[in-house]
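Running co-folding for cytidine-5'-monophosphate.
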Amino acid sequence: MIDLIPEVATKRLVLGVTGGVAAYKAAELVRLLVKNGIEVQVVMTEAARHFVGPATFQALSGKPVLTDLWDGGSTNGMTHIDLTRNADAVLIAPASADFLAKLAHGAADDLLSTLCLARSCPLLVAPAMNREMWGNPATQRNILQLKRDGVAIFGPDSGPQACGETGMGRMVEPQTLVENIDSFWYPKRLQGKRVLITAGPTFEAIDAVRGITNLSSGKMGYAVARAAIEAGASVTLISGPTCLTPPSAAKTLAVTSAQQMLEAVNGVIADADIFISVAAVADYYVLNPSEQKIKKDAHIFTLELAPNPDIVANVMNLPDPPFCVGFAAESENLYEFAEAKRKRKNLPLLAANLVQDAIGSDQSELILFDDEGAHPLQRAPKIELARQLIEHIAKLYHKERGQN
Ligand code: C5P
C-alpha cells in the first residue's frame, strides 16, 4: 500500500524590530529564518531604523521593509490588518522596554504596535534592554501582563551588555530564537520522551592522518535531532565527524569510528525510549591501523578490513529495546532493498532515500517503510522531512506502547 504524506505548508512570520542595539542581531535572525524555509516580513519602528538600515533586512528577507502606518503599500489602506491575516505568528525581536509597555497597554500609534493589536495569530517577544530597565517594576508588571494575555516571552538572557554592565537583558541569540520559534509552532508529540540519534559518517583510521569515510554530511541526522526537540523530546545526538553545529538543546557526543559510536550508544541506550539510527556507519574498519603516517613506496599497498559491528542490530537485540528506526541510502532498487533491510534488521520503521537525491544536499526525498507499507514523502528541505518523520515515529511509538 502506498500512502502519500502531504507536504508541510511554509510558515509565515511577521518580524517586528524595535529600537535597541540588539537590532543588529535581528539581521542574523532573518537570515536563519529564511534559511529554515520561513517567509519573513520585516516591520521596523522608527527607532529601530537608527540602529540598522532597512536595506539590510530587505536584502535578507527578499521583501520591502515596512514602517509607516500610512504608507504600507496595501491597496485598501489596511496594511496593519492585512499583514497578519496570513501570518502564523508575529515575533518582536528585539522588543524594547518601551515597546513592551505599549503592547501591555494596547497602544497603537505606529504600524508595528497597530498590527500587534489587530492580529489574530500568536504574538512572541524577545526582550532586549539594559538590566536596570529589565528589572524595573514597571517592565516586570508589563511582562506579567503580556504573559496573562497569552504572549510567549523568549528570554532575555543574562551576560555582558552593550552599555558595559552585566546582567539580565540580553536578547536571546538568533539560533536559539529560531529553535524557540520552531518549538512553539510544532506539536509536542514526543513530550518527555528520550530520543537517541546517531548522525554523520564514521571515520576508520588507516594511519595517523588517513582513513576510510563516506560522503554523509550529517544534515539529515541533525535535522531529525532538531525536529525531535521541537516535538518536546530530550535528545542525545551521537555524531561522527561533520562541519555542522548541533542544536543547542541536544546533548551531543562526538565520536570518530564505528566502534566509538557503538560504545557511545551502549553507554546511553538504557535511557532511550526511541533510537533513530541516521548515521552512515562504515561497513568495515582497518585492522592494525598505523600510529605513524605510512610512507609511500613503489609496491602495491593492501589494507586488511574487518566488518564493523551493526549498531542498530545490536540495539534491536537488547532484551528490552527502545523503539528503533533505521535509515537506508541506496543507489538503485530503493523499494526492494529498503524493505529487505527493514525486515533483515527487524525494524518497525525504516526511512530510505536514493544517495543521488540526498548526499550533502539541504533537500531530499524520503520513503518511510513500516508494517503498513511504503509512505513516500515529497521532495522538501531536510528539516521538513525530519518533522514528518518525527510525526510518523510518534504515531507508531504511541500506538505500539499503547499511549496517546
Ligand atoms: O549500512 P546500512 O544500509 O545497513 O544501514 C542501515 C541502518 O543500519 C542505518 O540506520 C544505519 O545507521 C544502521 N547501521 C548501524 N551500524 C552499522 C551499519 C549500519 O547502526 N554498522
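Result summary
The chain is about 35% helix and 25% strand.
The domain at 12-185 is CATH 3.40.50.1950 (Rossmann fold).
Job closed.
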